[in-house]
Write a structure and sequence with these properties.
This protein has 118 residues and is an all-alpha fold. The protein is built from five helices and no strands.
Length: 118
Amino acid sequence: MNRRQRGEQREAMQVGRRIQAERQVQGVSRRALARQCGVGPTVLRTIELGLGNPTLRQLVAIARALRVDLWMLFQPGTPWLWPVPPGSLGLERQRQHDAIGRVRGLLEAANEPVYGVS
């Protein structure tokens, strides 16, 4: 395996871990997310493990089902910025989301650009 292939494999594993982490934070089972995305649970598992080669269509479907922007699956350490219904996240995650919303509101009020927000 050459350097480029190792880099691609590492990126696939990181994307898979981000998908799995967000799915778990939201309390969604693998089977339920797979159903929402129109893929089998085995396919989703291979994506989460970084072993699969997901299509762009599959990644878009996963991002939509998780209510995150597609680019966030590729960006390490990115807070999720999509609005979510109250009570749908864990308490700590809800606090983080609320704090992001307040900062976003301050930036918008100051007429500063808010990047990464759909």
